[in-house]
Automatic annotation (TrEMBL):
Domain Dienelactone hydrolase: 13-228
Protein name per the record: Dienelactone hydrolase domain-containing protein
PANTHER family on file: ALPHA_BETA-HYDROLASES SUPERFAMILY PROTEIN, CARBOXYMETHYLENEBUTENOLIDASE-RELATED
GO molecular function, one term: hydrolase activity
Species for this entry: Mycolicibacter senuensis
Length: 233
């Protein structure tokens, strides 16, 4: 894994780059972090995706200015569905497409806040989208997902932010005839696939890591990406 700079409309930002072992080219995946931002957890996720044979770039959406100011801005851009954060993610996609190691197919995966971005940007030149508990779902979901790529979504049944989200998402993707795999893990909460600090407290509040749900979700994601990101999808 290396740290690189990515050119964006708002200036360069830093990102994590993971290149799989062995001969390429490989499909690419843009990984969008949660509200916490870069941490050891995101490094492990990037390495997992690269280990499955995907060229992986994780843009740092908090590259500009102080952390608190960045968080406020990025969440505002989630609501408006425009701004630097969206530009940064699309720039990460373009960076992958410009690499000789990339096969020309790029997916997107995101967690919590990043899952919302993964849904929101699924019509924007990606071959497949994997939102993990992207709740609350983006506003104007019917319009937002018009023309979206195939979606493999994972939710926690104990997620206090996600009540009704899986069913609502399923209705919209079926209405748009979008290929999909949507699954809810009954015993899991929000952030079930992130190994964050303070796990005992997180579990009490309906959050927290769940190994079995995480393993199953990644197996589904990689099977779905294998179908839609290899050999042109």
């Amino acid at each position: 894994m290396t740290t690189i700079d990515i050119a964006t409309p708002g200036g360069p930002i830093d990102a994590l780059l993971d290149i799989p072992e062995g001969p390429g080219p490989w499909p690419g995946v843009v990984v969008v972090h949660d509200a916490i931002g870069y941490a050891a957890d995101m490094t492990a996720i990037s390495e997992r995706i690269a280990g499955a044979g995907y060229l992986t770039v994780s843009p740092n959406l908090y590259s500009r200015g102080g952390r608190a100011r960045c968080i406020t801005r990025v969440f505002r851009e989630l609501l408006t569905q425009r701004g630097r954060a969206l530009d940064d993610i699309l720039a990460a996609r373009d960076h992958l497409l410009g690499m000789p190691e990339c096969s020309g197919q790029v997916g997107i995966a995101g967690f919590c806040m990043g899952g919302q971005f993964a849904l929101m940007l699924s019509p924007k030149g990606f071959g497949a989208s994997a939102p993990f508990y992207g709740t609350p779902l983006p506003r104007h979901l019917e319009e937002t997902l018009s023309g979206a790529c195939p979606i493999v979504a994972s939710f926690g049944g104990r997620d206090p932010l996600g009540k009704g989200a899986p069913d609502r998402l399923r209705r919209v993707v079926e209405h748009h005839n979008i290929a999909h795999d949507i699954k809810t893990y009954p015993g899991a909460g929000h952030s079930f696939a992130n190994q964050l600090p303070a796990q005992p407290l997180l579990r009490i509040t309906g959050f927290g890591y769940k190994d079995a749900a995480t393993s199953d979700a990644w197996a589904r994601v990689f099977a779905f990406f294998g179908e839609h990101l290899h050999a042109g999808g």
